[in-house]
Amino acid sequence: MSGPDPRLGVVVVAAGSGERLAARHPKALVLLAGRPLLAHALAGLAAAGLPPPVVVHTPGQGEEFARAAGDLAIAGLVPGGATRTASVAAGIAALADDVEVVAIHDAARPLTPPEVIGAAVAAVTGAPDVLAAAPGVPVADTLKRTLAGEVLGTVDRTGLVGVQTPQVFPRIVIDRVLDPTRPVEDATDDLALVERLRDGGELAGRIVVVPGSVWARKVTYPSDLALLEVLGQHSAPDAAGVGGGT
Ligand code: C5P
């Protein structure tokens, strides 16, 4: 993508139940340092200079989510679906028609540094052949494939990264992969949706990874919250992402 700054639309998916967190509230409403995860995520996006996002909330809990957003600007609230992909589609459907680039961010990544957010957006707005971009961090541990507690082998970790959000797409690309007239298989991230069409020859272009950060860690288990509580007391150093060692 090139020329004048394209109009950016932002979707925050926050409709997950957070079952693995075993909290009494939906995950996005769980507190980190006294503030809902959703509010942290919204503040991070605003600090990166992104426009107010559409927030996809747990169905039936719009008021609670509006309260959690507090004074932070949002472009709208829409109920989510049973899967992450359905929630993403609901959020994108609520974006203004003239949006040209879409950033999709997990509410469950409350401390994502603004630099990481900015780098993912710039990767799409700065290059005409980029179909999608996301932050990633190299896998640090040695990876084993196992079955029932037994090691079958070691996975070569060359080039392996864990991907984070925001994941960013030209609008034309994300609309195509979520085309409501044909079945869309669920995916645990949005890049995977684009990979399928690229690998099938329907889309041509690059899917890129920009440096992510440990601060962009997703809250899944109670231990993630504990870790982020500690990380939140420190400022993130320069993004340590792909290419940052093996
Ligand atoms: O479940 P997981 O932690 O992978 O979810 C990642 C993000 O997707 C979270 O911010 C969660 O709220 C969101 N999500 C959603 N709708 C779903 C499932 C997950 O908005 N049905």
Brief write-up:
The chain has 246 residues and is an alpha/beta fold.
Question: Quick one: CATH superfamily?
Answer: Spore Coat Polysaccharide Biosynthesis Protein SpsA, Chain A
What ligands does this structure carry? cytidine-5'-monophosphate
Termini separation: 32 Å
Poorly predicted runs of 5 or more residues:
241-246
Strand content: 15-25%
Strand tally is 12
Task: Please describe what this structure looks like.
This protein is of the alpha/beta class. It has a single domain (8-231), classed as Spore Coat Polysaccharide Biosynthesis Protein SpsA, Chain A. It contains seven helices and twelve strands. A five-stranded mixed β-sheet has the order 5-4-1-6-11, sandwiched between helices. Strands 10-7-12 form a three-stranded mixed β-sheet. The protein has a two-stranded antiparallel ribbon with strand order 2-3. Helix 2 links the parallel strand 4 (54-57) and strand 5 (76-79). It is globular, with a radius of gyration of 18 Å. The model is unreliable at 241-246 (pLDDT under 50). It binds cytidine-5'-monophosphate. Cytidine-5'-monophosphate (C5P) binds at residues 13-16, 27-28, 56, 80-84, 87, 106-108, 218, 220.
Write the layout of secondary structure elements.
Blueprint: E1 8-13, E2 31-32, E3 35-36, H1 37-47, E4 54-57, H2 62-69, E5 76-79, H3 84-93, E6 101-106, H4 114-125, E7 130-138, E8 143-147, E9 150-155, E10 161-163, E11 167-170, H5 171-177, H6 191-199, E12 206-211, H7 222-231
Parallel strand pairs: 1-4, 1-6, 4-5, 7-12
Antiparallel strand pairs: 2-3, 6-11, 7-10, 8-9
The structure holds cytidine-5'-monophosphate.
